[in-house]
Amino acid sequence: MSVLVYTESEQGKFKKVALEVASYAKAVADQLGTTVTAITFNVSDASPLGNYGVDKVLNVSNPELITFNANGYAQAIQQAAEKESTKIVVLSSSANSKYVAPLLAVALNAGYASNVIAVPSSTSPFTVKRPAFTNKAFEMLTINTDVKIVGVSNNSFGLVENKGNATAEDFSLSISELGVKVESVDKASNKVSIADAEIVVSAGRGMKGPENWGMIEELASVLGAATACSKPVSDLGWRPHGEHVGQTGKPVAANLYIAIGISGAIQHLAGINASKVKVVINNDPEAPFFKAADYGVVGDAFVVVPQLIEKLKAFKAQQ
């Protein structure tokens, strides 16, 4: 009875969250005195998982599942869980996993805890810690069902190496109706995605217009960060809706979140509060965001950001 972990990938390569959930699953398996089995989809080399505690890999090679499909992936994970007689399934808290988890919970008659930030404080009863009240408090949640599904919050557990060798085997499965068929995917290249980014540089209406976003992109490039924006910015068409972060956009749990020209409406704060360090640059000292910030700079972004870029470039040149 191993712990089963769904490891996300894209174009045959593991995402960072895959290694994080593998690390988490290993920690849970150690508590229970069992092993870790991972399920992958169309991955050519699963050996990296062995460095993060995975003992066995079930690789699904199915042309219908090359692109993400919630129904198909949920069916595959269900069949893997039944094959392994697993009682604990670990996923990330990415958008894809949050689509899969409810379908899987129904199929396995399992309890599901999302956005979990620590290993179980107890395995009997099975109790996990997760944020509550838009990250203003924490709750200890007990899952009483026989099968349990844990969604690990991004960047909460980190990558923990447990070097070993993972045995791999092909996993054959039976997939029924997929529901949705993906015809094509257009993806921006050479850009860090918000979901995978450890650093996010975000900006709001204080930038005054889309023509001024060059310095935001330059700062992100220097830091190796993803770019993001507030809801009004995407609504105005200044930036793509895919960059909108907040309660009604993409959630952010970065190690460093830099907000430039964003006032800090409660909906925005609710979506980014899980970030570990928040830096705010705003010319309004009364901006609500300063109350949530770890570091704040009161100043004109058009003066502060170019100076910050210059200093960062000089610092990196000395490394």
Description:
The termini are far apart. The protein contains 8 helices and 17 strands. The strands form 4 sheets. It has a 7-stranded parallel beta sheet with strand order 7-11-6-1-4-5-12, with helices on both faces. Strands 14-13-15-16-17 form a 5-stranded parallel beta sheet. The chain has a 3-stranded antiparallel beta sheet with strand order 8-9-10, with no helix packed on it. It has 319 residues and is an alpha/beta fold. The chain is globular. The model has no long low-confidence stretch (mean pLDDT 91).
Question: What is the fold's blueprint, element by element?
Answer:
Layout: E1 3-6, E2 9-10, E3 13-14, H1 16-32, E4 36-41, E5 56-60, H2 70-84, E6 88-92, H3 95-108, E7 111-116, E8 122-123, E9 126-132, E10 137-143, E11 148-152, E12 167-170, E13 199-203, H4 214-223, E14 226-229, H5 231-235, E15 256-260, H6 266-272, E16 277-282, H7 289-292, E17 295-298, H8 301-317
Parallel strand pairs: 1-4, 1-6, 4-5, 5-12, 6-11, 7-11, 13-14, 13-15, 15-16, 16-17
Antiparallel strand pairs: 2-3, 8-9, 9-10
Helix pairs in contact: 2-3, 4-8
Kindly report the oligomeric state of this protein.
single chain
- Count of distinct structural domains: 2
User: In CATH's first tier, which class of the largest domain applies?
Assistant: Alpha Beta
The helix-strand sequence is: EEEHEEHEHEEEEEEEHEHEHEHEH
What is the name of the CATH architecture of the largest domain?
3-Layer(aba) Sandwich
| Computed Rg | 21 Å
- Report the major sheet: 7 strands, parallel
The pLDDT mean sits at 91
Shape: globular
Total number of strands = 17
**Proportion in β-strands:** 15-25%
What share of residues is helical?
Answer: 25-40%
| CATH homologous superfamily label of the largest domain | HUPs
Secondary structure class reads: alpha/beta
Largest sheet: spatial strand order = 7-11-6-1-4-5-12
Euclidean distance between termini CA atoms: 48 Å
Helix segment tally: 8
Give start-end ranges of low-pLDDT stretches.
Answer: none
**What fold name goes in the CATH topology slot of the largest domain?**
Rossmann fold
